[in-house]
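Regression check, inosine-5'-diphosphate case 148:
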Amino acid sequence: MEKTFLMVKPDGVQRQLIGEIVGRFERKGLQLIGAKLMTIPVSLAEQHYGEHKGKPFYDDLVSFITSGPVFAMVWQGENVVELTRKMMGKTNPKDAEPGTIRGDYSMFVSKNIIHGSDSPESANREVALFFNENELVEYDKLINSWIY
Ligand code: IDP
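Current build output:
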């Protein structure tokens, strides 16, 4: 089953949106297999956002993502990467459709409350960056026979 890395950013944690965001993915039928509240060290933030190094917003992005706790998660399901990107909405909340997480709960690109891997390859990389193998819990979700 495909996995993805999702993270409620510091603004989403402060705005008490963890439960709302987790609830949307649960109700969709996805399976949570790892989660933790953590403060990201600068070195991990730099690795995670390495592709943006050199861009004008990079320094602000690293200081924002390390500014307070995030809620890091691993979810699995069929096509989970594409599906959760759709549920998150466009990067800039002004372009994100109502009904998406960013469309419903955020106003500004640097405070867009959630991160989600953008391809299965980046999902594998990001899951490995944030979680040890033993932090991922494989279990049978009995309701899956009513979902798939
Ligand atoms: P994504 O989070 O939708 O995958 P990316 O392009 O990978 O979008 O950008 C990573 C994060 O960097 C965004 O979620 C947003 O918080 C921030 N960001 C992207 N573009 C800008 C910008 O033009 N100004 C400020 N922040 C930006």
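Comparison notes: The chain has seven helices and four strands. The mean pLDDT is 97. No diff flagged against the previous build.
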